[in-house]
Amino acid sequence: MAHDHDQGHKHDQDQGHKHDHGHQHDHGHQHGHTDLDWAEMGPMLESQAELFAPLYERALGWLAQEVTAPGLIVDAGSGPGVVSCLFAETFPAARIVAVDGSAPLLERARARAERQGVGDRFSTIAGELPEVLDELDYPADLLWASRSLHHLGDQRAALAAFAARLAPGGTLALVEGGLPRRFLPRDIGIGRPGLQARFDALEAEWFTRMRHELPGHVAETENWPGLLAAVGLKPARTHSFLLDLPAPVSDRARAYVAASLTHMRERIPDGFEAEDLATLDRLLDPDDEASVHRRPDLFVLEAHTVHTAVRAV
């Protein structure tokens, strides 16, 4: 988005990633953002993805209802491998391949797999999506693409490439969409109420510019089940998963909020409302009692949507 991405946000920061390409969220990796230092961002992306682990665990459990015994699972846009390793835990007989454009993030993924005792069935491939998928030894029974597709200029062509790497009867799980995240009440006691809603508009504008600036950009209606059908797959299910971390939050959650708002601060255009800018600066000031580092009403509420589709047998 990671980043990103990412999650989160490469993420999101999604990876969200990345983390936040405004959606860094996937704590995976934001493709095409070659100016980012992924080795430096790795610890943050990994921590953010771990924060989202409850959401991912529910999503993987939901996937396991229809994907019962996959031999090969591919995490396309894996970032530091938090979700890849959750796949290894959810499907103990599967081989996992983490695919990402960042070699430093893949090093973190391999180290994580070793620490968790799944290194013997865990491998990585470094390269840019979707072309790098040609390096797979055999087709995937499950291909997971979490907020990595929207970093590719021609999303329909990329989906077709994803579909081509599926085994007959294989499932593509696409994570795109959801709901804007929320960290704070509407009225936070400083500045004009509704700050995050105004940030949503900035994020939407930033995301549109990001898409238009991608190499080979093709405008596409974001009807994900429709696009999955258009590349020859049979849409199966769609479900949204919520990350609900109520106040008081952990230090890790505070760090995620601070990183997300810092990312927003760096992207604010000239001419932005001075009062909102001053409010944001207070929210980011560790010495201010009203900051996200200190305030007791901070929370994290975020939804990610998973769409699945199946290749004909």
From TrEMBL:
Keywords: Methyltransferase, Transferase. Residues 73-170 form the Methyltransferase domain. GO terms for molecular function: methyltransferase activity. GO terms for biological process: antibiotic biosynthetic process; methylation. InterPro entries: Methyltransf_25, SAM-dependent_MTases_sf. Residues 1-36 are annotated as: Disordered. This is Methyltransferase type 12.
